[in-house]
């Protein structure tokens, strides 16, 4: 359909909306924001009769590439180090995608603008597309990559794993609580406009450098839909900004969304891109360099800051704190170290870092070796079973971390840790902004204003609590992270595909698993204060084991 | 290339930096070790012997604390509702994850099927234009299409945007929600197809075709007020707790409203009356939607409802609730259907009476209820 025809067609379909008179509409999804009717237009002028054939054509390209990859046996050249991290990433991402589809009626209920509703309908089916296309990509990996273990239990492990839960809040955040907080700010304005750039553009580039051209094929096709979604978010945000009463709530939701997604997405994607790659060319961008380009320059400076003229209160300090944590705090490096510490309760393998990796990290992140080099050397020396325990239970000097009650990533930058007695228990937070999220944002009022629509944190938020006091082997069996001989673990701290070098349940039996939060709550006040003081001082990795 | 350097050395052209190609031999079967042959998703029971691609890409994407979600939902609402809550429908199930969409809708099928529908509609119109088929339209028929045919677009818009869209948020499995979301798109696409057809006819017939008449008809023409009331009530369905009632919305739309009102209008009116007025195009346009309902939307809804009705633990209770739903929704749909009666006598030629048409849909409706082993409400039989 020609563009002029699309414009006419789009104008015509606006005639379909009407105001019901037989019932008084009772919105099922509530918001504490207030809106005036009408307002924003949909500049994308989307019409389904042009949309479906366009998407079908995009699919032909994707599935053609998948056929090509299978026939050309792409897996002869994929890096196992990279592919293993896809067991984590591709277990997480289909749920946030489908949650985005489910989130759309939150806005059709809460935002009185039929033209925006039309855009949301496109987004809904886009998201169904994304979720199922990603599940299918993972299926191809499972069928064609040398080690399918971990892909074969993908959705089960996503649901019962600590890392899965961290990722899951990304999706649950889209579909619960205040309709505007969830679907507009958290999903469209922050997740889609800011973080899809690192998720769906930076990741594919790294995949291609590691011999995997299917992930770029699928995810760049996904990303080509995102402009529609960003546009939906922008229109709704401008409608919110038209009412001064919303400005505090927008600021609250931006702080929560920007910080939480930094904590969650940068943890996972930073690790996958920097620690999942075998491409150590010094002129390829590190995750932090990508973050600076995609997030700081393209999103923060080019998208958010210009909105200040419409009255948006941009939380500059939150973004600067995230940047500081990424650089001075070595945030995602501490996450990679944590993932590797707990390798035996993962459902993917983690390849040890080598001298070549060390050199690249030191070049990109000066000071890296002093902080992490020795530990990764210990990891490497403990990677094959040889009568010793997994690294978490050997004397490396590493202190197993407390978990953040808000973002559920552990409190890894020890000096930033906040401890507080909240809702009848002692909780730990990885940063003052995560403490603020639980104690200020997710509450029944904000700045003296009732916020009955705001969501609530629920569930067993510290994963370790589930297995406190368990034998490690029994915990792994319970999780289902055991291969089909009933003995060999799915996770391994290496990418050696040899039965003689793979860890089994017997290698981890007799080790008691403990929950830092349970222990914290069992301490006396004096013990707790002392413990936290020591915790915040950090640890020193031993020179030798 | 200036020098014949092996590409695996990442020489590139001059100073260009490119990643190395490394032959890793990481393909399936390159080594045999424990787990190297585990090449299917093993955490759900396929419906048949082997899982279909649809099942692989759909099952367990939406978690459930009753399956593997050990930490539970981590975000919820102030009233205590969680991510997905079984209390959002009165249906009960001993296994929410048993249902499979018989249409096996996933990414590829959604776009192939809808694109085919778009092409069918567009080629019907283009073929008619190139064959000058519109010249053969009875003049008295033109305002009927402008008013009534176009008014149906509002029905599909309401069902798609405000019934199925919220319903796909709330069901207890990904299989339910994906099936409903595809249904949502069928309705929205048809609504737009009808409007775009309207726009084409404005170009073809000029002033003879009032392209905006449908709005007034939808809002004020007495023939349509029963239909509008039915649709608006469907848009506002909720259970006693105030949340969306996805199973009731799907039942009341696809088991009650569509057979009694949708098929009455599409099959009995448009498809029967248009040919007698020289119109071969409108049946093709609406026929796409009729086929989608028959072949796909009704099909998944029947399987979904049968799953509730055949539940060993809750089947009988579910049946009683569906009877209550029938008691509530059938009167609205009967009223909506009967309200349309005047349009049967509005056209110059009447190939079939309203009574005959209505008997047809009532019979069809009784057949659907019979297949579900539900009692036919009095309003239908009297």
Automatic annotation (TrEMBL), chain B:
Claim: Disulfide bond is one of the keywords in the record: no
Superkingdom assignment: Bacteria
InterPro entries attached to this UniProt entry: Ferritin-like_SF, MP_mOase_hydro, Phenol_Hydrox, RNR-like
EC number in record: 1.14.13.227
GO MF annotations in UniProt: oxidoreductase activity, acting on paired donors, with incorporation or reduction of molecular oxygen, NAD(P)H as one donor, and incorporation of one atom of oxygen
Keywords in alphabetical order: Monooxygenase, Oxidoreductase
A Pfam match: Phenol_Hydrox
Signal peptide positions on this chain: none
Major enzyme class: oxidoreductase
Gene3D superfamilies noted in UniProt: Ribonucleotide Reductase, subunit A
Catalytic activity: propane + NADH + O2 + H(+) = propan-2-ol + NAD(+) + H2O
Protein name: propane 2-monooxygenase
Annotated organism of origin: uncultured Rubrobacteraceae bacterium
